[in-house]
Design brief:
The chain is an alpha+beta fold and 157 residues long. It has helices spanning 2-28, 39-51, 64-69, 87-96, 125-132, 134-152, and strands at residues 29-33, 56-57, 61-63, 79-86, 106-112, 118-123.
């Protein structure tokens, strides 16, 4: 009876873990189709939205195709990373949780799929905030997520 109970607990724990991992994979990255026809139009609209948002800055847009081409790798579908930062939020997070600096600045990917449709993808900051909790949860999961949502409102279909 005890071996069966232990086996049941192990199987249950594995099933819950696999369910959790699957759910996290599907929800950790948010993907929406751009209302614009091209990567360039989408990037321009996103950069404009960032510049018009109180206290936010745009450290840069990375051309991933160009970066790969410099190393002899040709990649056809266009992919850009648009970075955004609000210094007061960054300082607030880094005051207590410097290890999450790897997630800064926030970035939105703008890319073409194989059929030419343009998409945006970004980290689900609300979910990330729940996972980290504490100060990261309060700042990134609530404040940054709320302002990022407002910035991206015009960039969703």
């Amino acid at each position: 009876m005890i071996p069966g109970l232990i086996a049941g607990l192990v199987v249950g724990a594995v099933a819950v873990t696999l369910l959790f991992v699957g759910l996290m994979r599907r929800r950790m990255i948010e993907v929406v189709r751009s209302p614009f026809a091209t990567v360039e139009e989408t990037v321009t609209a996103l950069e404009r939205a960032i510049s018009q948002s109180d206290g936010w800055s745009h450290p840069g847009t990375r051309d991933l195709n160009g970066m790969m081409a410099k190393h002899g790798v040709a990649f056809g579908p266009r992919v850009r990373l648009v970075e955004m930062c609000k210094a007061s939020y960054s300082a607030g997070v880094l005051q207590t949780d410097r290890h999450v600096a790897t997630l800064m600045p926030c970035a939105v990917a703008v890319y073409e799929d194989d059929e030419g449709a343009v998409w945006l993808s970004k980290l689900n900051l609300k979910l990330m905030g729940k996972v980290f909790g504490g100060n990261v949860g309060r700042i990134m999961g609530e404040q940054v997520a709320r302002e990022e949502e407002r910035m991206l409102a015009g960039l969703r279909r």
